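User: Let's play a game. I give you a shape written as tokens, and you guess the letters that built it. Ready? Here's round one.
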């Protein structure tokens, strides 16, 4: 099944948060593996609250098989597989196997979600090349939307389908929804700024996996339905007058 990349222009907009929470919700729709494709700044394992021994880095450097780098957690009645990564101090010259690893996982799982590095360095572009579908995460800020616009141009130039924008840390900025749609593309998901998400990062747990009843989990569930192929649309809320900032 398709390999889905979660990308962004700016760092810190919430790619890892979205990758983890979306993946947990996708377990309601099929088998899921979430890959920490951000080998520049890997931290997916921290959000899941564990310290991995074998990681994607060992796989990419030829020291381990991808099967050995898969960790499993329970989400409700189902489970979620995680391929974490780890920090490297040296430049990784050969990233060729990255695309192969993603292809391999795509043959086994219903959904492969890849947390891609921010920006447009090779650490972002190479995993993007291994994705068939790409979502771009941004925050409701002008600079974030502009950075996303640049990434969208690159997505259009590679062999991947742009699936939409995910607005993260939303606090009712409807102008940003309009601006993102105009400058980047259709909005596939709107995720609120949430205290529970921040706490999850502090304590090392994924909110959707432990608090499926939270408002933010509902929003991730709607996004998961969309990623699973349902025709659902997020509903922007907030003050319409900000639309004037377009
Ligand atoms: N929906 C959200 N609500 C509140 N805080 C968030 C949300 N998403 C992300 N954050 C905060 O932003 C920080 C960066 O998010 P992260 O997912 O690591 O971004 P990225 O992977 O794009 O660098 C997190 O540590 C968290 O504190
Ligand atoms: Mg990240």
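Assistant: Ready! My guess for every position:
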């Amino acid at each position: 099944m398709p390999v889905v990349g979660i990308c962004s222009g700016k760092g810190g907009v919430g790619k890892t948060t979205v990758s983890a929470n979306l993946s947990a919700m996708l377990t309601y729709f099929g088998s899921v593996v979430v890959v920490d494709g951000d080998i520049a700044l890997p931290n997916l394992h921290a959000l899941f609250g564990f310290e991995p021994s074998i990681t994607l880095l060992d796989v990419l450097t030829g020291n381990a098989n991808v099967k050995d780098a898969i960790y499993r957690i329970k989400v409700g009645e189902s489970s979620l597989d995680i391929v974490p990564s780890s920090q490297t101090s040296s430049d990784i010259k050969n990233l060729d196997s990255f695309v192969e690893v993603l292809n391999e996982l795509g043959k086994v799982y219903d959904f492969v979600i890849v947390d891609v590095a921010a920006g447009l360095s090779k650490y972002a572009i190479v995993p993007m090349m291994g994705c068939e579908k790409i979502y771009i995460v941004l925050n409701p800020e002008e600079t974030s939307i502009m950075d996303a616009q640049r990434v969208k141009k690159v997505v259009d130039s590679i062999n991947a389908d742009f699936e939409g924008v995910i607005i993260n840390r939303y606090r009712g900025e409807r102008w940003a929804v309009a601006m993102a749609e105009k400058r980047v593309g259709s909005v596939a998901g709107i995720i609120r700024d949430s205290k529970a998400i921040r706490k999850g990062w502090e304590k090392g747990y994924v909110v959707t996996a432990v608090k499926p009843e939270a408002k933010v989990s509902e929003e991730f569930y709607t996004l998961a339905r969309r990623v699973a192929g349902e025709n659902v649309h997020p509903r922007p809320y907030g003050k319409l007058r900000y639309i004037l900032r377009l």
